[in-house]
Design brief:
globular; 5 helices; mainly alpha; 131 residues; 0% strand
Length: 131
C-alpha cells in the first residue's frame, strides 16, 4: 500500500458505512429517526458525536489533503472538512443541528436511505477501480 492508495481505502470504508447504514434503514424504517431522537435527548451523546466527527474528519482531511494530484483525494478531503464542520456545529449548537436534521430527514422519507445506498455503492466501486 502506498500513500496514493489512502484516498481509495478511505472511499472504500466510507462506502461500506454508507451502504450498510442505508440498507439498514431501508430494511427497518424508522431507525434513523429513533437514533436522531436519542441525539436530541442526550447532550452527552451529542458531545461524543461532535468529538468523533471532528477527529475522524480531521484525520481524513489531513491524510488526503497532501495529495491534491488525485480528484479522489480532493473529494475525500472535502468530505473530511465537512465532517469537521459538522462536528463543530454539533458541539456548538447541537440541539439546533438535530432539529435541522429531523426536518431534513422527515421530508424525504426513503429518499435519503436510497441515496446512502447509491453513494456507498459508488464509493466502493470507485475505490476498487483505483486499488
Amino acid at each position: 500500500m502506498t500513500p496514493q492508495d489512502l484516498p481509495s481505502w478511505i472511499a472504500l470504508f466510507l462506502g461500506l458505512y454508507a451502504l450498510a447504514a442505508g440498507m439498514g434503514e431501508l430494511r427497518n424504517p424508522g431507525g434513523w429517526a429513533a437514533m436522531l431522537e436519542d441525539f436530541e435527548k442526550s447532550p452527552g451523546l451529542r458531545f461524543l458525536a461532535g468529538i468523533l466527527c471532528i477527529g475522524f474528519g480531521a484525520l481524513i482531511y489531513l491524510v488526503c489533503g497532501a495529495q491534491y494530484r488525485s480528484w479522489l483525494a480532493i473529494a475525500m478531503s472535502v468530505i473530511g472538512g465537512l465532517m469537521v464542520i459538522e462536528g463543530v456545529l454539533i458541539l456548538a449548537s447541537g440541539e439546533r443541528v438535530m432539529g435541522f436534521a429531523r426536518r431534513f430527514l422527515g421530508k424525504a422519507g426513503s429518499v435519503w436511505p436510497g441515496f446512502s445506498v447509491f453513494l456507498g455503492a459508488a464509493f466502493i466501486l470507485l475505490a476498487f477501480a483505483r486499488l
